[in-house]
Amino acid sequence: NSHSLSEEEIDEYADGTVKLRNPNIELMDQDILYHVALGSESHDLREMFGDVKFVCMGGTPKRMENFAHFIMDEIGYKLPAGTQLQDISEFSYRYSMYKVGPVLCVSHGMGTPSISILMHEVIKLMYHAKCIDPIFIRIGTCGGIGVDGGTVIITEDALDGHLRNSHEFTILGETVHRPAKLDKKLARELKSLASADDPYDTIIGKTLCTNDFYEGQGRLDGAFCEFTETDKMNYLEKLRDNGVVNIEMESTIFAALTHHAGIKAAVVCVVLLNRLNGDQVNAPKEVINEWQQRPQILVSRYIRKVLAQH
Ligand code: R2B
Ligand code: URA
Q1: What is the pTM of this model?
Q2: What spacing in Å lies between the alpha carbon of 111 and ligand 1's midpoint?
Q3: Is the ipTM beyond the 0.90 threshold?
Q4: E runs forming strands in the chain
């Protein structure tokens, strides 16, 4: 019939493996994933990564190492006798990567350029390894807008600095926009796994993605500031009126690249401070460390639920 399929419907017809929307790759003798210290000929990527179902990424190497140990306990995964968890990308000196059975834990650094490089290589890794329907989840930190520190936020829509639900690329000197779409169903499912017993809130809302932590997020405490506190508050209130509940620095590119690759994705961040009350991140280190486990706990509930269904 003349009914045309939406992009979501077309995804369901795929065999689940990650398709590369780049014809050049299969014509190459080898593909070196330089920044994660892997290669399609130097490593048997299918053997090493073919069973990956979840790709969890977060900013820092340490947090992702902690998550790898945590998820190992949670899913009851046993490393082969006599082996230890290893940073697969150790010798890139750029990112760290740990594999715990079906869960790949990768650090992505701060901001768009850093996570963008990593995502090109991890999406190609999924392709070379022939992974079936991998789900990507970013586990991060953020500033809240009218939301207290310790709250967990699942991103509903990722907005750029102009409040557009897309990511702006500059390619060959041209501006290109790609939709920053996350999987709404996945977001709702994650939200449903928040427990009434959790001693903190888990909410869904819009996320602003910026290219800077200081002036770019309306902070008064950077090395420079050429706006007033009133300008700042007007801006934050405008964000809030548009449904924005948090600010971080990777969600639009993360959403745009996963969507472009046909990969289901979600962003789950913990709030480090309520930006309506200040700019400095001044919660004690132990408190922040505990807060950073909260997105991991939610994602682990999701992973366990999915694994239990198979
Ligand atoms: C959240 O925290 C980092 C800045 O402190 C940045 O990577 C982000 O998105
Ligand atoms: N990460 C951000 O990008 N902004 C904050 O305010 C806190 C963490």
Answers
A1: 0.95
A2: 7
A3: yes
A4: 32-33, 38-39, 54-58, 97-100, 103-107, 135-144, 152-159, 166-171, 174-179, 202-209, 244-248, 264-274
